[in-house]
């Protein structure tokens, strides 16, 4: 009996990959010319290549570029890039930045979470009847919307501060400290939401939470010391390729562990980055190599798979959807920006600095897209609300730079004093990764870099280490 030949997806993948990567790169470069972080361009390209534009204007071209046989492979490669990105975010999340700012940072970050949680919950209660998919409980839906309103994009914030020369200033250091606390708190809350969504009973949810806490403690008190001892002798005992293999294998296994626990693979990759020792030159070199490939090559696939799920026509078909979109955007901005700015002002910052911190904390970027994709994959939100929230993430990210320019206009920026390094040009001896994601072969003895979604990096100065 004759069987129909199965089409080999490789030729289609070899077409889609360079188109996506080059388009995202072009989008990132274009928006940089108008003072936007590259992630805004990549988000836009992802949306434009989806049903919102290409699939609407030229559906045959969209079907040719992204046939159904290719989509699973793009998703897997994009998720691998996302796991590596989350590892790098965890590696760069140095809570030592809280030194000198701990009280203010904790107050501002918790206010910038508490206010969006409260207002987001009230909004979600009103949206539940219109947007909650069938079978989703009210508590799961409300908690997810509340958490999605509370996100700050730590890596994008770092890149904006660096591009604008604010990284070494007092307001920049404080904003980074606030974002660090915010990031950890928001991921913990999202882990709770994921556990609730994937559990069939309260007992199972509690079991998942206990397992996640046990895994976190094991990573911190067992894996972290082991990695520290291994890193101390890795420079002389192992080749650099072995170190890279260990780091990549570790983030994959940690991701697998949290996925099996029931709190999503991304948490494991992020946690492995947090417990990986800093200050090791060999680890920093291999992290830079991992970054130089996965971030500019694989991560754009995540933006496009997100864009393929974003359909603006779902909003155009019903004017009420645009009213809900406006309400989501208004609540997101007022709660996050207003909550952070008010807390900073109460903590003793002047109005200019308080509003600047609020604008930075309102930046959501790639981190928000990660959260939204988790919610969509779990079935907690549907495609229509997913599209609304993606639009909110894009606009709140895009408004950050212009708002900061307006707020900081004419303000003198005083850099924080830097500790002596023992070398006059030590900062210039660090590894730099340019906007293309290509690593320059210079010494990496300096501090680690901060990564953004475009493949660029920003040095972490000693003032906020």
Summarize the structure.
By secondary structure, the chain is mostly helical. The protein has 19 helices and two strands.
List strands and helices in order, with pairings.
Blueprint: H1 10-32, H2 38-48, H3 54-57, H4 59-65, H5 71-92, H6 102-131, H7 138-149, H8 154-163, H9 170-198, H10 202-237, H11 240-261, H12 265-275, H13 281-309, H14 313-316, H15 319-346, H16 351-361, H17 365-378, H18 383-398, H19 400-408, E1 449-451, E2 457-459
Antiparallel strand pairs: 1-2
Going across the major beta sheet, what is the strand order? 1-2
- Summed over residues and divided by their number, the pLDDT gives a mean of 84
Content-based structural category: mainly alpha
* N-to-C order of helices and strands: HHHHHHHHHHHHHHHHHHHEE
Q: Which outline best applies?
A: globular
What is the helix fraction of residues, given as a range? over 70%
Q: Which regions are unreliable across 5 or more consecutive residues at pLDDT < 50?
A: 419-465
Number of strands: 2
Radius of gyration: 22 Å
Oligomer: single chain
Q: Could you tell me how far the N terminus lies from the C terminus, measured between alpha carbons in angstroms?
A: 68 Å
Largest sheet: 2 strands, antiparallel
Percent in strands: under 5%
The number of helical elements comes to 19
């Amino acid at each position: 009996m004759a069987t129909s030949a199965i089409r080999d997806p490789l030729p289609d993948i070899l077409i889609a990959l360079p188109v996506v990567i080059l388009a995202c790169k072009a989008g990132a470069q274009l928006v940089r010319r108008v003072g936007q972080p590259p992630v805004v361009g990549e988000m836009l390209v992802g949306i434009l290549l989806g049903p919102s534009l290409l699939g609407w204007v030229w559906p045959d071209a969209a079907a040719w570029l992204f046939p159904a046989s290719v989509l699973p492979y793009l998703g897997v490669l994009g998720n691998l890039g996302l796991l590596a990105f989350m590892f790098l975010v965890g590696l760069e999340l140095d809570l030592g930045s809280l030194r000198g700012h701990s009280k203010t940072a904790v107050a501002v970050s918790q206010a910038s979470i508490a206010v969006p949680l409260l207002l987001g919950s009230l909004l979600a209660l009103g949206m539940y009847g219109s947007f909650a998919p069938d079978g989703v409980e009210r508590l799961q839906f409300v908690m997810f919307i509340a958490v999605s309103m509370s996100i700050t994009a730590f890596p994008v914030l770092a890149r904006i501060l660096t591009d604008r020369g604010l990284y070494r200033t007092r307001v920049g250091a404080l904003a980074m400290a606030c974002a660090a606390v915010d990031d950890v708190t928001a991921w913990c809350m999202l882990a709770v939401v994921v556990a609730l969504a994937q559990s069939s009973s309260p007992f199972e949810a509690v079991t998942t939470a206990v397992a996640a806490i046990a895994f976190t403690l094991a990573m911190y008190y067992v894996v972290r010391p082991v990695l520290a001892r291994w890193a101390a002798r890795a420079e002389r005992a192992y080749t650099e390729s072995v170190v890279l293999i260990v780091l990549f294998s570790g983030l994959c296994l940690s991701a697998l562990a949290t996925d099996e626990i029931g709190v999503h693979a991304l948490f494991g990759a992020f946690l492995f980055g947090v417990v990986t020792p800093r200050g090791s030159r060999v680890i920093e070199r291999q992290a830079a190599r991992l970054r130089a490939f996965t971030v500019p090559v694989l991560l754009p696939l995540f933006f496009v798979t997100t864009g393929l799920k974003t359909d603006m026509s779902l909003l155009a078909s019903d004017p009420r959807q645009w009213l809900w979109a406006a309400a989501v955007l208004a609540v997101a901005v007022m709660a996050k920006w207003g909550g952070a700015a008010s807390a900073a002002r109460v903590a003793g910052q002047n109005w200019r600095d308080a509003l600047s911190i609020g604008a930075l904390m309102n930046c959501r970027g790639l981190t928000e897209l990660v959260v939204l994709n988790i919610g969509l994959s779990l079935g907690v939100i549907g495609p229509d609300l997913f599209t609304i929230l993606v639009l909110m993430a894009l606009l709140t990210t895009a408004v950050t730079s212009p708002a900061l320019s307006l707020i900081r206009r004419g303000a003198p920026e005083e850099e924080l004093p830097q500790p002596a390094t023992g070398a006059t040009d030590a900062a210039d001896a660090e590894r730099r990764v340019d906007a293309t994601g290509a690593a320059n072969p210079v010494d990496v003895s300096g501090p680690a870099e901060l990564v953004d979604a475009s493949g660029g990096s920003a040095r972490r100065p000693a003032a906020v280490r």
